[in-house]
Design brief:
Length: about 210
């Protein structure tokens, strides 16, 4: 059972996810790339209630870890610290920010499959990447609300089920797309990326259901 969520990255996405997780009742441990003291002030002001730590401490103490670092930085995260952990990959390869990263331009696979090779001992699930960080808090709705939006997730089914419950508590309907390869359907450039969809609409976009 997930009670403590760890977040690697205290930037735009990491902060928004942290506030969402706190509101959902989770304990939140968060880090930047350096010592806890470097982010203490921002955590106190922007994410009150979260605990600032180093990345290694976050990884060791959390039941589930959310990767919210820029794609060009993912190899600075020590994969050994995430061995055996459930890890959410929120990252997108975004050339204006990441520059040209050959491993993504020459590899036809979805970005999360490339990332999963690096974190080979972790249980990686792709989600939270196709919603704008600013929409995460404003779009959250209670279960059953007709306005509730869906969030797609991809990864191994058993791990994805754990992550789905977290998304549900965050205020979204999880829509399981399939194994990591299915995550290509909600990467940048896809109709899902950056849009707002109900779970039913997402299922149609993902080819899991037919339009009525
Ligand atoms: N923009 C959106 O709406 C959106 C939505 C969903 C997903 N995404 C994706 O989310 C990811 C993060 O984007 P962002 O806009 O939040 O980035 P950001 O604002 O630049 O923040 C990045 C954070 O990652 C930290 N970091 C870097 N290397 C680290 C490491 N090895 N361990 C721990 N923390 C580390 C940075 O800390 P330092 O300052 O110490 O380096 C910083 O706190 C990107 O891949 C992006 O594509 C973006």
């Amino acid at each position: 059972m997930v009670t403590t969520i760890g977040i690697l990255g205290a930037g735009r996405v990491g902060s928004a996810v942290a506030r969402t997780a706190l509101k959902a009742g989770y304990a939140v441990h968060i880090s930047g790339s350096g010592p806890a003291a470097d982010i203490q002030l921002i955590v106190d002001i922007v994410i009150p209630g979260a605990v600032a730590m180093t990345a290694a401490e976050v990884a060791a103490s959390a039941d589930l870890v959310i990767l919210a670092v820029p794609m060009h930085k993912f190899r600075t995260v020590d994969p050994g610290t995430l061995a055996g952990k459930i890890v959410i990959d929120t990252m997108n390869y975004w050339q204006p920010i990441d520059g040209t990263l050959d491993e993504f331009t020459t590899d036809a696979r979805s970005s999360s499959e490339v990332v999963a090779d690096y974190f080979a001992s972790a249980h990686l699930v792709k989600t939270l990447n196709h919603i704008g960080y600013h929409d995460l808090e404003t779009d959250a709705r209670p279960a059953g609300d007709p306005q509730r939006h869906g969030l797609a997730l991809a990864g191994e089914a058993e791990t994805a089920a754990v992550v789905a419950e977290v998304l549900n508590r965050f205020g979204f309907d999880p829509v399981y797309a399939g194994p990591l390869v299915a995550g290509a359907a909600f990467e940048p450039g896809s109709p899902i990326f950056g849009g707002r969809h109900t779970a039913d609409e997402l299922a149609i976009e993902l080819g899991l259901a037919e339009a009525a």
